[in-house]
């Protein structure tokens, strides 16, 4: 089954072609980082305009790289939500037009389910049930995946997403955008124990996350000590990163142990973070939990993961009508 998938929920215009939802025949991602960098965050209006320019060439390249033509496809899938409405609309409109003209089955994909399906693009896909920690620029949540296409929400952030905290801290340290990869790089020259930023604890015992507290602590620390030397900036970056990693690892492992789940998937843009991958790996091994982390290129936004999830939906018999539309607030569970 050859499927074309389209992703345009935020600031990457992406298209991929997969065989049987597992074999990546092509995976094209046009990043908009350079467009948004001067603003220190994604500007929705600029994002949708750029999607409009990029989506045609990106799809053409994905088809050419895969060596297939539109009539060869067995289906077309697209990210329907959650995300920026203006961005989602571009992908949905194009997918619907192609499905209509070429008479192909169409399916809408939840972006977070796409992130989870990135784990199925590896040689070692997880067996069900598993716990998925999805950490991205827009979301930080733990899902229990009991069976294919079935998810229960275990916990989520009550304020900022982890990636959003990386981006905001990078901005206030004057490091640029997107913040995650830059903080990771700068942190390599710093001491993760230099500053003990407070870590959020849920007083009601919930499995939720919170990152606004550590972000505010970093902001106050930086204001009090300004101007910071490069060595001090590295220490702040390293200490902040260590704090976020500790909170994520602690919550994920505790939830897995409590639910008696033996497999954990780490995915989403922040899952590209080296220290997070290492720390969760160490803690999982210590507790006899198998950890599945997709390679970084499938962790950050891409269309291969959307196509993998969409193929599973098509194989399950799902069909989206041509009246389908963007669902900017679509909750996975
Ligand atoms: O999944 P993603 O590409 O887009 C969303 O769905 O949001 O995630 C983007 C987020 C950004 O906040 C970015 O700073 C973060 O992932 N990120 C990282 C790293 N690479 C990307 N955060 C920490 N360390 C990284 N290496
Ligand atoms: Zn994402």
Structure description:
- Helices cover 44% and strands 19% of the residues.
- The protein has 333 residues and is an alpha/beta fold.
- It has two domains: 2-116 and 298-315, ATPase, nucleotide binding domain (Nucleotidyltransferase, domain 5, 2-Layer Sandwich), CATH 3.30.420.40; 127-293, 2-Layer Sandwich (Nucleotidyltransferase, domain 5).
- The strands form two sheets. It has a five-stranded mixed sheet with strand order 3-2-1-4-5, with helices on both faces. A five-stranded mixed sheet has the order 8-7-6-9-10, with helices on both faces.
- Strand 2 and strand 3 form a beta hairpin.
- The two termini are 28 Å apart.
- The mean pLDDT is 97.
- The structure holds 5'-O-[(R)-(carboxyoxy)(hydroxy)phosphoryl]adenosine and zinc ion.
- Residues 111, 115, 136, 268-269, 301 line the site of zinc ion.
Summed up:
With 333 residues, the chain is an alpha/beta fold.
**CATH C-level category of the largest domain:** Alpha Beta
The fourth-level CATH homologous superfamily of the largest domain is ATPase, nucleotide binding domain
The rough form would be described as: globular
* Bound molecule kinds, no repeats: 5'-O-[(R)-(carboxyoxy)(hydroxy)phosphoryl]adenosine, zinc ion
Q: Going across the major beta sheet, what is the strand order?
A: 3-2-1-4-5
Determine the mean pLDDT: 97
Detail the poorly predicted runs.
none
User: What is the CA–CA distance across the termini?
Assistant: 28 Å
Number of strands: 10
Number of helices, where a helix is a run of at least 4 consecutive DSSP H or I residues: 11
Structural class: alpha/beta
| Biggest beta-sheet profile | 5 strands, mixed
Provide the β-strand percentage band: 15-25%
Radius of gyration: 20 Å
Q: Strand-and-helix sequence, N→C?
A: EEEHHEHEHEEEHHHHEHEHH
Overall number of domains = 2
Portion of residues within helices: 40-55%
């Amino acid at each position: 089954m050859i499927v074309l998938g389209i992703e345009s929920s935020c600031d990457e215009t992406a298209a991929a072609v997969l065989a049987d939802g597992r074999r990546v025949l092509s995976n094209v991602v046009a990043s908009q980082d350079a467009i948004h960098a001067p603003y220190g965050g994604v500007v929705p209006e600029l994002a949708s305009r750029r999607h409009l320019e990029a989506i045609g060439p990106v799809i053409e390249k994905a088809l050419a790289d895969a060596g297939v033509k539109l009539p060869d496809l067995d289906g077309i899938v697209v990210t329907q939500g959650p995300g920026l409405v203006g961005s989602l609309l571009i992908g949905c409109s194009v997918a619907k037009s192609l499905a209509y003209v070429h008479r192909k089955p169409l399916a809408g994909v939840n972006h977070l389910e796409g992130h989870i399906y990135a784990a199925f693009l590896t040689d070692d896909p997880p067996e069900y049930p598993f716990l998925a920690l999805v950490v991205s620029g827009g979301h930080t949540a733990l899902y229990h995946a009991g069976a294919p296409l079935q998810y229960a929400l275990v916990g989520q952030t009550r304020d900022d997403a982890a990636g959003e905290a990386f981006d905001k801290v990078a901005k206030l340290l004057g490091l640029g955008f997107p913040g995650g990869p830059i903080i990771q790089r700068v942190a390599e020259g710093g001491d993760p124990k230099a500053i003990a930023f407070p870590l959020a604890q849920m007083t009601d015992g919930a499995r939720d996350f919170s990152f606004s507290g550590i972000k505010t602590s970093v902001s106050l620390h930086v204001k009090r000590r300004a101007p910071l030397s490069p060595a001090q900036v590295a220490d702040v970056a390293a200490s902040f990163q260590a704090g976020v990693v500790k909170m994520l690892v602690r919550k994920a492992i505790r939830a897995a142990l409590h639910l008696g789940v033996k497999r954990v998937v780490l995915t989403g843009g922040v899952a590209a973070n080296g220290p997070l991958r290492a720390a969760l790996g160490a803690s999982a091994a210590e507790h006899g939990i198998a950890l599945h982390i997709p390679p970084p290129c499938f962790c950050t936004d891409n269309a291969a993961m959307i196509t993998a999830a969409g193929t599973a939906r098509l194989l399950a018999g799902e069909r989206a009508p041509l009246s389908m539309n963007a669902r900017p607030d679509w909750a996975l569970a």
